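Throughout our pipeline, every protein is held as a single compact record rather than as scattered files. Nothing more is needed to write down the fold, since each code stands for a local backbone conformation. The record that follows is passed on verbatim for readers who wish to inspect the format.
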Amino acid sequence: MNRSSKINLRKGKLLCTLVVFFFSGNLFGQVQGGKLWYRQPAKQWEETLPLGNGKIGMMPDGGLKNDHIVLNDITLWSGSPQDANNYEASRYLDSIRNLIKSGKNDLAQRLIDQHFICKGPGSGGKQWGCYQVLGNLMLAFDGQTNLTAVQNYRRELDLDKAMAKTSYELKGVRYSREYWTSFADDLGVIRLQSSKKGQISLEIKIDRPERATSKTEDGELVLVGQLDNGVDGKGMQFKTRVRAQIKGGKQLVKGQSIVIQQADEVLIYVATDTDFKGKDFERTTAETLTRALKKSNSQQYAEHLQNYLAKFNRLSLRLGQSKDDLPTDQRLVAFGKEPDQDPGLAALFYQYGRYLSISSTRLGLLPPNLQGLWANQIQTPWNGDYHLDINVQMNHWHLGAANLGELNEPLVGLVEGLMAPGAKTAKAYYNAPGWMAHVITNVWGYTEPGESASWGIANAGSGWLCNNLWEHYLYTEDIDYLRRIYPILYGAAQFYSSALTEHPTKGWLLTSPSVSPENSFKLPNGQQANVTMGPTIDNQIVRELFVNIIHAAGLLGNQSDPFLTKVAAQLKRLAPAVQLGKDGRIMEWIEDYEEVDPQHRHISHLYGLYPGYLIRYGEHPDWQLAAKKSLDVRGDDGPSWAIAHKLLFWTRLHEGERAYKLFRQLMTPRVDTHINYCAGGGVYANLLTAGPPFQIDGNFGGAAGIAEMLVQSHQDTVYLLPAVPQAWKKEGRVTGMRIKGNHTLDMEWKDGKILNYQIYSPKSQQLKVCIDHNWIAYRTKEK
């Protein structure tokens, strides 16, 4: 590589006009983010286009006569806080452990089901709660007709504008509908326009399937309701206001509708709030509308866009030619036939992942759940909650590299809320200090086991959350952030330090009882079981947590704490992070059990490969070979999140073509919405990932995989293009991608060779950079 050819982008002067075009994202004629677009209205909810500002969600279907817009609020949950701890559970802990140590795992599992799970129905009960749809906004248009009678129908989502749009021509009139959820004014906004005056007539309604009342009030539509808390029915309250403004024509209230006749232009505003944070939600909705409507609509949108682009425009990505002239649904089909002809689809999918994170996450509120922000049902699949055995963590894996690190903050808040209830659970079940959480949680701070030993006793959830929070520190090196999360890490380490038990023959320290998430094995007596001691994922997570808390203590000057001396001693006695089985694969459990389902969707025993760092490229080649064998046996199919996880494993193994094969599989068009635990992953026409049904973790995990194909970093080492597939080698560039150590990368390549790259830091630092298996000593540039 010619060092003199590097372009310093952060200096005050740009070198030439070419550089201006290149780094503004226009050299290849492609906009920053791209568009999803279609030639017909959505036929099912999974084809509608997601809009969000981290709190309010909208998904319009673009129907001609009836435009159905599904509304969401990230805080709208049924249920309520509960104490489902069994305070007698710890009395049975020794008996359970002794049964496991003697190989009677099946009997231990029965005992757990009797005395060591949660009290009550757990996640199957009403008090657990559910993330629910807010309501349905219906726009019924007069004079409109079916698709065959219109011309030039187009429905799109513009990632560069954070706006959806529906447009078409009918009888010589051009109609346009624009939709956005304002980041500035906290409103949903819909703007209806036509090329001729007096052509817009419609009826506006809002409703909800249950526990809500729709009415008109002072010329507005109002939806008020109260969800079931699972106790006395008096759960979370909410209020939604819909107000319309018109130019020309008439507006009147008719029953529970707003009717607009022969208008030139219509603006529809949606304000909503809940009492999740205990505030005066009724007053805030009115104030939000009043404050926003003091501005012109153009100012409203300009402020919305400025707020959004402040995050979105931090990073640009180009991966070669793009078939963006094809409607997105057709583009997916074409990609399946000739994937190498559309490398730009991966760039679109990556930027879509960033868009979805910005749209579903707001500081001070809740992290994206299993469906992000978007749900169209009262009973969302799996309650739309937070699964701690991969899903909520995967929702955040891409944020560091994507230059969206601050969007981890709601997850930190969620975990902070688990510490107090988690302390009760740690004491009740393990007679241990600190705090812990098992495998599922909700907005009400649930930390107890689930309702079945087969999956609900997994106890590495809190450790995995801590390691996710630590990862954000590695990207930012923000010492104030580290001070905030240190008590979280410390409390979790206290729990594991106390709760570890000793292997009966080898003296290792390990968790017990626990499971490898949702998987089962065969015992020598022919019985099947899930419960074990020291599943591999636990051994890896606890090891990372102990290393991280010791490192964090040193950074904060707390290294003299006697507890850390204990942790350091225990670290040496932990069960091995990796054990190889007789067939050469990485063992999933402490014993070399045979799996009941060799192709199980969870690949938990490879946690140390990704998201962990215990199995690193270039170290322990026998571990890497064993990981490959494990993945080959597991197979490539599964729900979308599992496909994304496998993609990430292969990127860490620097196997770009195998990773790309999994990306292609992730892009398989799907329409089925029925739950399939084992297979059928892909994407719906709107590029939301299918389990099926829709789960957003596949979008975020896939985005993380694309970034890892381009750059990987650990401590002071950086790999550039470590797993780039042949299809992406022809040309590409990325600007603004983050690297661990508080660095930022700009890079350009052609024909598989890096032409230019720059790495920036607040202070110049020495790094080791690997390009095409060659190591280079590199000093970063100061911003």
User: Anything to note?
Assistant: Residues 617 and 652 are 7 Å apart (CA to CA). The first helix runs from residue 17 to 23. The radius of gyration is 27 Å.
